[in-house]
Amino acid sequence: MPELPEVETIRRYLVPRLVGRRITAVRFGTGHVKTEPGPSAFRRLLYGARVRGIGRCGKYLAVRLDKGRELIVHLGMSGRILLARQEDAEKSLARHERARLDLSGGLVLSFFDPRRFGRLWVKDGVARQPEACGIGRLGIEPLESDYTAEYLGNRLKGRNTPVKNLLLDQRIACGAGNIYSDEALFAARIRPTRTGASLNRAETASLASALRRVLKDGIRWCGTTMKDGGYVLPDGRTGSFQDRLRVYGRAGRRCLRPRCRGLIERVRLGGRSSHYCPLCQN
Ligand SMILES: [Zn+2]
């Protein structure tokens, strides 16, 4: 699932190529795409709008349009955004291509989503439903200056939930998913199964800075493309942070921490796989 670094990589790619262009057509492919409002109102709100800027909130991409409108995209499990030149795009929409925006200057922005967990919203000027897409309920981002050891400590305090699940809780801090949470816990030498309440101050501080560091590294290396994964940059290139993962996806293999002889284990937590080293993560 695309996490903060992947969505930020997509955002940085799109900004210089999309800002200033006008949406000249909106088409939907076969198969259901979840839009809010429904397809015809969605199309009407986007048609003719000019892209003013592109922001991001956690894992949500927010394309600012004129007339105070905003197109919000959540890629779900397997969503992909691809940008192509009109002449290179097929006339009809491809398999799994759920929506396509034609843009002035001969560009085509496509939303692919094989597993259909992604969603698209258009928020109208006065924001009829500001909370509708869930952004209103997000916690702060680990990359913001408010995300301190003290903030994280306060949110973990008294929680008997595994710390891994608390890192995935987007109301506490938004942007990290399964991959970057596992990497941060490894870097901080904390087991994913520990409860939030069991972390001392030093561990909390170490976790807060580890999470910030792995997210920044993820951005620097243009995100993580796993073998089964849907994430690619809008021009089809893969990210390269998968070559730098230290624990995620390495179950049964030797721990990469120098001088540690542990073998990486995998446990199920909250329906997701967590990876950790039983020797150097306590
Ligand atoms: Zn180890």
Protein architecture, described:
With 282 residues, the chain is α+β, with helices and mostly antiparallel strands. It has six helices and eleven strands. The chain has helices spanning 4-18, 39-46, 149-156, 163-168, 178-187, 201-220, and strands at residues 23-28, 34-36, 51-57, 60-65, 70-74, 80-85, 97-103, 107-112, 119-123, 265-269, 272-276. A hairpin with a 4-residue loop joins strand 4 (60-65) and strand 5. The radius of gyration is 20 Å and the shape is elongated. The mean pLDDT is 93. The structure holds zinc ion. Zinc ion is lined by residues 255, 257, 260, 262, 277, 279-280.
Strand order of the largest sheet: 2-9-5-4-3
Calculate the mean pLDDT score and round it.
93
* Ligand roster: zinc ion
Number of helices: 6
Distance between the termini: 27 Å
Anisotropy-based shape: elongated
> Structural class per helix/strand content?
alpha+beta
For the structure shown, list the relevant keywords.
6 helices; alpha+beta; five-stranded mixed beta sheet; binds zinc ion; four-stranded antiparallel beta sheet; 282 residues; single chain; 24% helix; 11 strands
